Amino acid sequence: MNSEQRETRARLSLPMARDTMIVGTLAVLALYAGSSFLIPLTIALLVNVLIIAVSDRFVAVTHAPVWIANLAGVIVVLAGLFMIMYVLGSQATQFVREINTFEDQFDNAVLKITGLVGNDVTKFIRDNLISIDLSMVARAALGSATSLLNQFLLISLYVAFLMAERLAFRNKIRLAAPSPEIGADLSTVMDAISVSLQRYIGVKSFISALTALISYGVFRVLGLEYAETWGVLTFALNFIPSIGSIIAVIFPALISLVQFDSIVPFLVIVFGCGTLQFFIGNFLDPAMLGRSLNMSTFLVILALTFWTTVWGIIGAFLSVPLTVCILIIFSHVPALRPVAILMSLDGSLGEDNGNRN
Question: Shortest CA distance to 233 belongs to which of 172, 287, 313?
């Protein structure tokens, strides 16, 4: 009897694995093919979560009516996003237009630091870094910001309608569920996702803003060109796990080599801003986020690679929030709970992911 049960389970598992692979493949293809529609919608959903977090905090502090708090949250968040996109968009064209004049200076600047390193590193610099097409790098890095600025109106419309249907949508989910139990489960999943995303986006925004302000102060003191752009990019790049903070230091450091005859500004940015990024990334960030996300470190890197491949640089910024949503959904589906355990940091999902501190 036991052998028959094992054979039955084996037969059942093969179709399940096949169907899972088919669904997964179709989902990836849909994400890639529908990126032009899904990216603004996803950004709008995350902005909506941030607005709700600001609105709830506003109510807790001022005890104002909910509609006033919602209006304040919309104004604060959308105004902040517009300022970020405007700075990037307005300086992107100027930066790309002038970067051709920097290429010869960049070649000479790279040679300044070859005397500080060994022969192997010098050979690597000469063979690789000097051959970099800075125009292509600049257009790839800043082109997404300009495109996002053009889509700001669409994102704002999505956010407005999401806020207008915030309470009605929850009621519609309950009414559309086949049973009250399923409706309660869906509400639990939505609450868990909302709490986790609010905590992540809120804390990450504060930490990124703090890092950007300090870095911007350093850039201004040094007299670095496009200091506003590098400050905004520092804020944005800190949302990319692991490599974002490194890129946020490398770009302004390279520009300082081009702009200044002395190597001192380069060293100040590398060691000063680099130390700041290291301290915040390894101490302040984990202390404030704690274990609320409970995501495997390997999963974070894997998610970064996957979403960057599917959605480009925007996918890199969205990789952690999107993976958090997937992890929470999997943890509430019995058939997918083992996958959620593998995705977690220590295998502990808890009864309610939204209540984890």
Answer: 313
Interval 191-201 mean pLDDT: 79
CA-based radius of gyration for the chain = 24
Contact 158, 39 (CB under 8 A): no
List C-alpha distances in Å: 286 to 151, 203, 291, 355, 357: 33, 10, 8, 18, 12
Q: DSSP alpha helices (H): ranges in 238-334?
A: 243-259, 264-267, 274-279, 285-289, 297-331
Burial of 94 (0-12, 13-18, 19+ CB in 10 A): exposed
Q: Are 317 and 236 in contact (CB under 8 A)?
A: yes
Task: Encode pLDDT of 254-268 as tens digits.
Answer: 888 778 878 888 889
Give, as one character, the DSSP assignment of residue 349.
-
- Asked whether the beta carbons of 325 and 45 are under 8 A apart, the reply is no
Cβ contacts of 155 within 8 Å, gap of 6 or more:
40, 43, 44, 47, 81
Beta bridge partners of 295: 344
Contact status, residue 200 vs residue 324, Cβ threshold 8 Å: yes
DSSP summary character for residue 34:
T
Residue 301 contacts residue 162 (beta carbons within 8 Å): no
How far lies 81's CA from each of 4, 10, 145, 236, 316, in Å? 60, 52, 11, 11, 18
Is 82 within 8 Å of 224 (Cβ atoms)?
no
Q: What residue ranges do the domains of the chain occupy?
A: 1-33, 34-355
3-class secondary structure, 345 = coil
* Cα(11)–Cα(281) distance, integer angstroms: 47
**3-state secondary structure labels for all residues of 156-224:** HHHHHHHHHCHHHHHHHHHHHCCCHHHHHHHHHHHHHHHHHHHHHHHHHHHHHHHHHHHHHHHHHHHCC
Tens digit of each residue's pLDDT (9 = 90 or more) over 302-355 = 888 899 888 888 888 888 888 888 888 887 777 778 888 888 777 666 544 444
- Residue showing tokens 């889509």: 151
DSSP letter at 48 equals H
The angle, 0 to 180 degrees and rounded to 10, between the axes of the packed helices 297-331 and 180-222 is 150
